[in-house]
Amino acid sequence: MTTLRTKSLRIGHFGYCLAMLLPLAFAPLHLAAQSQSSTAAQPPLRFEVASIRPHKFAGDEPSNRRILPGGRFVATATTVRTLIRIASGLDDNRMSGAPGWIDNELFDINATIADHAEVKTPEQFQQLILSLLEERFGFKFHREQKEGSVYWLELNKPGKLGPALKPSGPDSQANMSNNSNGARSEMKISKMSMADVAAGLRRQAGRPVEDHTGLTGDFDFEIEWSPEETADSLYPSLFTVLKDQLGLKLQPAKGTVETLVIDQIERPSAN
Question: What are the domain boundaries of the chain?
Answer without folding.
Answer: 14-143, 147-256
